Amino acid sequence: MGTRGGAGRGQGRKRGYKSIAAEKAREHLAKRIAQVWDPLINAKIDLALGHKQIIVSKITGQPVDAYMTAPDASSVQYLMNQQVGRPTEKVEVSGRDGKPLIIRVDE
After folding, report:
1. Is 52's pLDDT higher than 80?
2. How buried is 53 (Cβ within 10 angstroms: 0-12 exposed, 13-18 middle, 19+ buried)?
3. Residue 47 lies in a domain
4. Alpha-carbon distance 79 to 96, whole Å?
5. Is the per-residue pLDDT at 16 higher than 90?
């Protein structure tokens, strides 16, 4: 009787044309992105800041800040994560159906 699953000769994903083509596409994309890296970063920063102009209020006649394009929160979060790292996330682990997890140590 044969075994089920697990590592063995001939097991796993075969390296074929699709994976080679995808790898070449990723390499090409990485080269193209490297050529325009600074403008891309500047664009992301611009998205994070939004586009603000000072206009004169029709009601008060006073100058006020008005966003022509609102700041993009996901861009702010992305840039913060790149600069200072992602915040730690709380992970809870439980047993099947939310029951307490039983850890057994055999000596």
Report:
1. yes
2. exposed
3. yes
4. 38
5. no
Here the tokens at position 18 are 């699709």
Tell whether 6 is covered by a domain. Answer: no
Are 107 and 88 spatial neighbours (Cβ–Cβ below 8 Å)? Answer: no
Cβ–Cβ contacts within 10 Å for residue 50, how many?
14
The answer to whether residue 55 sits within a structural domain is yes
The structure's pTM equals 0.50
Assigned domain for 81 exists: yes
The separation between CA 14 and the C-alpha centre of its own chain, rounded to angstroms, equals 28
Instruction: Give the span between the Cα atoms of 50 and 101, in whole angstroms.
Output: 47
Measured distance CA(41)–CA(35) in Å, rounded? 12
Domain coverage including residue 47: 37-85
The span from the first CA to the last CA of the chain, in angstroms, equals 33
For the chain, where are the alpha helices, taking DSSP H only? Answer: 17-35, 37-49, 73-84
